[in-house]
Amino acid sequence: MSVPKWIRVYAGPVVVSTLLVGAVLGGVYLRSGDDAAEASGCRADPAAVKAIRAEAILNQNPRLTRLDPVAEGLTCGSPGSFGSVSRRLTTPPTGTDVAKFYAGLAARSGWKPFEYSNYLYSATKETGGCPWWFLVRAEDDAYQLRVMYQPAGVPMSDCAWATTEPLLLQATIPIGK
C-alpha cells in the first residue's frame, strides 16, 4: 500500500507547524505562570534563607565527604510554592552512614524526624508558621541535602507540606547564591 502523494508533501510541514505553535503557546503559558507568581507576591525570604544557611545540617558533613557550595531555588504556583536551600554532598560512605549522620545532627539541632520518609532521611523544624523541611536524597554519585521553606508573600494557609512530606522537585528556579 502506498502513501498518497498529498500526505507525503504536507505531513512534514503540518507536523513542524504544530510543534512550533505548541512551543509558542507553551512559552506563553509558562510566562503567564511566572506573571501570576509575581502578582501573588511569591518571592524568596531572605531572613529564612539566612537562618537556613546557618543550620548545622547544611554546614557539617561526615568524615571523608565534601559539601558543594550552597544553591538556592524558588518555585511559585500550583501545586505549591516553596523556596529551597540545598547542597550536594559527595561521599564514599554508604547511604546508611549518611542518613545516620544527618539523623543525629538533626536531632541535636532541634529537627523532628519524619517516620515514613520516601528519602534517606527527612525531618521538620517548627518556625512559628509553615515548618522547614529537611530532605536527604541519594543521587547518582552523591547525596542532595535540601531544606524547603515557605516563600515570602505566600499565605501560611498555602503551606504545601504542613502534614505531608514534600516531593523533591528538580524544576526549581535558581535564585543566586
Write the layout of secondary structure elements.
Layout lengths: L4 H36 L5 H8 L12 E2 L3 E5 L6 E9 L4 H14 L3 E2 L7 E5 L6 E7 L3 E8 L23 E2 L3
Antiparallel strand pairs: 1-3, 2-3, 2-8, 3-7, 4-5, 5-6, 6-7
Keywords: Membrane, Transmembrane, Transmembrane helix
Description:
It contains 3 helices and 8 strands; from the N terminus they run ααβββαβββββ. With 177 residues, it is α+β, with helices and mostly antiparallel strands. Strands 1, 2, 3, 4, 5, 6, 7 and 8 form an 8-stranded antiparallel sheet that branches. A hairpin with a 3-residue loop joins β6 and β7 (142-149). The chain has helices at 5-40, 46-53, 95-108, and strands at 66-67, 71-75, 82-90, 112-113, 121-125, 132-138, 142-149, 173-174. It folds into 2 domains: 1-40; 46-174. The radius of gyration is 21 Å and the shape is globular. Keywords: Membrane, Transmembrane, Transmembrane helix. The chain crosses the membrane at residues 6-30.
List keywords for this structure.
globular, eight-stranded antiparallel beta sheet, alpha+beta, 177 residues, membrane
- Helix/strand-derived class? alpha+beta
- How many strands? 8
Low-confidence parts lasting 5 or more residues at pLDDT below 50?
Answer: 6-33, 169-174
H/E order of the elements?
HHEEEHEEEEE
Oligomer: single chain
Instruction: Kindly report how far apart the N and C termini lie.
Output: 61 Å
User: What portion of the residues fall into strands of 2 or more residues?
Assistant: 15-25%
State the helical fraction: 25-40%
Number of helices: 3
**Rg computed from alpha carbons, rounded to a whole number of angstroms:** 21 Å
Shape: globular
Average pLDDT level = 77
Count of the separate structural domains? 2
Largest sheet: 8 strands, antiparallel
